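[job 4471] stage=fold_predict status=RUNNING
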Amino acid sequence: MRWRVGQVKITKIVEMETVGSTRFILPAATNDEIRKLPWLIPHFATEEGRLKMSIHSLVVETPARRIVVDTGLGNDKQGRGVPVWNNRNTPFLEMMAEAGFPPDSIDTVLCTHLHVDHVGWNTKLVDGKWVPTFPKARYLFGRTEYDYWRDYTAEPDKVAVFNDSVKPIIDAGLAELIPSDHRLCEEISVIPTPGHSPGHMSVLIESGGEEALLSGDVAHHPCQMAHLDWCSVVDTDTAQSAASRHKVFSRFADTPTLVIGGHFSAGHIKRDGEAFRFEALASSSS
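[job 4471] inference complete, writing structure tokens
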């Protein structure tokens, strides 16, 4: 799927799609509760109230840059807490190349945060060693985010993610640690949206009088627009996560800003009383 924002093109490349089986992420989003939000159906949920989600990368093309925002799960990774995320063997890079984005053509990789499903394709396994997947790119990590996970030892699965998908980039000298209000170029900047993780950032695109927000995991699913207090079980700080959702949704509600989530597709945020809803864009524009 593709969208245009002024002179900027956005292409979504899907690694995995799921229907249901998301209660471990959003336990409050039961089938009964989701059916109370009919605007979610059919784009974001089924008639039965099962959530539709995806793991994907977004390629952002400016007149001068080619940026990958978040890199999914990756192949051959081990030690993940979700069994089906281990030892994957998918043609994701071939799909990128077929879409016109071979790895050598990428000059920037930007990770909204350093969770397992946003950093996996930072590296690939070559002769038993993890090497950068995008060898000509600078990898941008939030400094706050990096510092937190660099010293984190509490959960072995998260340590494994850092060691195989983040540390090799640092060791290769390709990483740049950025503040959470960094501007990459004329059209692209990041804004701080902490809570899901300590240094979580969202990506703001501004071009030709138009704008888009790549929100990352400030919300995993549009149902959280109606229920700001519905938090992910992996949120580092649930109160801060809810506060970031309120701030972001308030800022972009009732504007023409294109919003694309880290696990859901494009639409526009609308106010719905004290809460919000999401109007899907049924078709992409090229």
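[job 4471] summary: The chain is about 20% helix and 30% strand.
[job 4471] exit 0
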